[in-house]
């Protein structure tokens, strides 16, 4: 049987299994193993345990559960409430102030957790009920939180960049630096949209009548100073060369536990058990997906799919930017069907060699890929942020949530266009810091 036909059947099986709601790691692993059996017989499968062991011992992956632990510890601390309250005091005078506050607090929380659903859960639990109680339309309120929660994927420390680094060998620190400017720019674009829409349609976001003195604003900043200090500790230790990203994750996780226990007094034995259990569950699920995706990509490598794709892309008689736009469109469609982590793990080994052969920087492509994955987590029917939003505010209608995030897809697309037109947005800071 031709290799291409085998891969096509394996992909078809993967799609069917996903459609049947089979766990993604089972779908990827089963499709990959069966494909390897047909392509290379038992020899290909027999080598998998050693290859998987080597893959899962990748040093960069150690950072993943540590950053998850950091985020889980902060989730029980009450920090989300303080972040939202502080942002509200600074944005109260602008139209859609509560929506802008939600985006700003999600940005800061994302800079500590690196996991988008944690950001949506923590900020959404406070921000959305507050907005609804003040007359905000459900779509406006939920959309601002579900979309801005995805910023955690782009602003370091980002779990997606850790996974991309483990596959490509790109420096995690450089990827983190590459996400800073696009992440802050995207946050500013979201805030501008919230303010602009509230100005044009005040019925969707009634103007806040509360006023705060400068003293109240400064005291609010003081209440979140430990959180800001944690961001400086983690990123500062990386870019001063004091610690690797993995070591910084360990320091940050320990600091988050101490801060939650001592400063916020919110980490008793019950909370600690919950934090550790949640960290273990999320970390194990991610590593299971990493392992299964590696099996599937091994099948693609045996069939020489990355080489074939690279040769095809390079041989196209079109400008390279056209190829990049086409890749982004394909990823957008795939993101509607597969969760972000699985999509990254499967497509990176295929697309990264082709993009490099076109002369593009793999670091820049990594940032582009993560922005595209941000769109995936807010795109139905698989978008995890949408269902997280529903779970923390059950009275919301899913149709309202879908309607609320739709404009943010256009904002994300605009950022993609900017990154393709001006690659320096992603590459300037890594060149300066690394």
From TrEMBL:
It holds the Pfam family DctM. The chain crosses the membrane at residues 6-39, 59-80, 100-124, 145-167, 173-196, 217-242, 248-267, 274-301, 321-351, 363-388, 408-433. Residues 12-425 form the TRAP C4-dicarboxylate transport system permease DctM subunit domain. It is found in: Cell inner membrane. Keywords: Cell inner membrane, Cell membrane, Membrane, Transmembrane, Transmembrane helix. The keyword Iron does not apply. Its main location: membrane. Coiled coil: none annotated. It is a multi-pass membrane protein. The keyword Kinase does not apply. It comes from the Bacteria. This is TRAP transporter large permease.
